């Protein structure tokens, strides 16, 4: 069993197709298939069902995916330590939510380019779920989104947190008691927020479910700037980062 075989298995099992996995590893589909077949012979078990139009992991293959991910991650850290004095190079594709894109993403890219001038950085900004799906399909190397992923093929790690507060236009009658807003008050409130597919909204939805309440009406929008504008216009209450 080799690291290349493990990588071939992992990306084939987590990407949308063998073609995407092969592209992720910069090899041909035939080379990818050969590495997987060699791994299956080494393990004495079939890792993919190949009877349909597209190969899918067997039960044994699905069980091995998180273990393969951990082994590849450990190997990556080993190589990083071994090359700690060398600059990174190659192509780095990552995704981020719009809030990150509006705030510290530019500084992060600048620091990456200064530290690793040979590294080709390709950031993508979008709604959390769309970014997460691209990560699961193998189109991205990592992602910065709100909340942990529930996908078994994705390893999540908390790197920070942001405080959110309720906001509205100051001259609205409801604004006087906004600091004392209670869950039951949301029943008669228009809530302006990102779509349900955004990570921050999924966290908010979990809180609303725990409180057993629902806003009187939802006004979703995919753009933070537009959301702020709708709130300033007095069309409802928002849930925004305090900063």
Labels describing this entry:
single chain, three-stranded parallel β-sheet, four-stranded mixed β-sheet, alpha/beta, 243 residues
Coarse structural class: alpha/beta
Radius of gyration: 22 Å
Give the biggest sheet.
4 strands, mixed
Distance from N terminus to C terminus (CA atoms, Å) equals: 50 Å
Unreliable segments of 5+ consecutive residues: none
The overall strand count is 9
Topology:
Blueprint (H helix, E strand, L loop, with lengths): L2 H12 L3 H8 L3 H15 L4 E2 L6 E2 L1 H24 L7 E7 L1 H5 L2 H11 L3 E7 L2 H9 L5 E3 L19 E4 L22 E4 L5 H13 L5 E4 L3 H9 L4 E5 L2
Helix pairs in contact: 1-2, 1-3, 1-4, 2-3
Structure, explained:
The chain is of the alpha/beta class. It is built from nine helices and nine strands. The protein has helices at 3-14, 18-25, 29-43, 59-82, 98-102, 105-115, 128-136, 199-211, 224-232; strands spanning 48-49, 56-57, 90-96, 119-125, 142-144, 164-167, 190-193, 217-220, 237-241. The chain has a four-stranded mixed sheet, with helices on one face. Strands 4-3-5 form a three-stranded parallel sheet. Helix 8 links the parallel strand 7 and strand 8 (217-220). Helix 1 (3-14) crosses helix 2 (18-25). The longest helix has 24 residues, at 59-82.
How would you summarize what this structure contains?
This protein is of the alpha/beta class and 243 residues long.
């Amino acid at each position: 069993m080799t690291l290349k075989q493990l990588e071939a298995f992992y990306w084939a099992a987590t990407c949308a197709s063998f073609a995407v996995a092969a592209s992720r590893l910069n090899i041909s589909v035939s080379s990818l298939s050969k590495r997987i077949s060699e791994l299956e012979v080494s393990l004495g078990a079939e890792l993919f069902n190949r009877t349909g139009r597209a190969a899918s992991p067997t039960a044994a293959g699905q069980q091995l995916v998180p273990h393969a991910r951990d082994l590849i991650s450990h190997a990556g850290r080993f190589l990083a330590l071994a090359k700690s004095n060398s600059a990174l190079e190659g192509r780095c594709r990552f995704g981020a939510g719009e809030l990150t894109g509006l705030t510290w993403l530019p500084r992060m890219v600048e620091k990456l380019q200064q530290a690793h001038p040979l590294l080709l950085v390709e950031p993508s900004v979008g709604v959390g779920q769309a970014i997460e799906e691209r990560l699961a399909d193998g189109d991205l190397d990592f992602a910065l989104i709100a909340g942990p992923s529930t996908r078994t093929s994705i390893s999540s790690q908390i790197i920070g947190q942001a405080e959110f507060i309720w906001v509205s236009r100051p001259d609205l009658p409801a604004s006087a008691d906004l600091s004392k807003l209670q869950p039951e008050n949301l029943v008669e409130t228009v809530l302006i927020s990102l779509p349900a597919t955004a990570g921050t909204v999924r966290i908010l939805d979990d809180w609303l479910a725990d409180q057993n309440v629902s806003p009187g009406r939802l006004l979703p929008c995919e753009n933070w700037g537009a959301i702020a504008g709708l709130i300033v216009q007095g069309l409802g209450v928002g849930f925004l980062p305090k900063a």
